[in-house]
Specification:
Layout (H helix, E strand, L loop, with lengths): L1 E7 L7 H23 L3 E6 L4 H10 L7 E7 L2 H9 L1 H14 L9 E5 L10
Antiparallel strand pairs: 1-3, 1-4, 2-3
Length: 125
């Protein structure tokens, strides 16, 4: 499995609450509708929680400001992602999502990366 991790930034004219409502609502529904065409097998949204303590910790280390949320988009393999995203249906679905993102995201600040997880330990099991 591979995943794309996206740092999401809200448009400056939206509050965090407005951004999250749009992202968790209409956008999540649209991603669900586009998932098959894009070959997506898992979709996770991670919402930023307010934490003055963490913000101070980050400042003390010289870190940049955190994004407003994270998205994880999962595919079975690189080959399945490339096949789906290279298809006419996958490209059309991707264009729909891109247009929708402009309604609530600041696309000039967003970034993404592809990754493979390597679990070092998991004490939850």
């Amino acid at each position: 499995m591979i995943k794309m991790i996206v740092q999401n930034w809200r448009r400056p004219d939206l509050t965090q609450e407005q951004f999250v409502a749009r992202w968790r609502g209409a956008h999540a529904e649209l991603v669900s509708q586009c998932a098959k065409a894009m070959g997506i097998v898992r979709y996770i949204q991670s919402e930023k929680l307010p934490s003055p303590e963490l913000e101070e910790f980050a400042r003390s280390r010289g870190w940049v400001q955190a994004c407003d949320s994270l998205t994880e988009v999962w595919w079975k393999s690189m080959e399945s992602m490339e096949a789906a995203m290279g298809s006419a249906q996958g490209q059309a679905a991707s264009a729909l999502l891109q247009a929708d993102e402009k309604e609530f995201c600041d696309s000039k600040k967003m970034s993404a990366l592809l990754s493979v997880e390597h679990v070092i330990f998991d004490f939850t099991k």
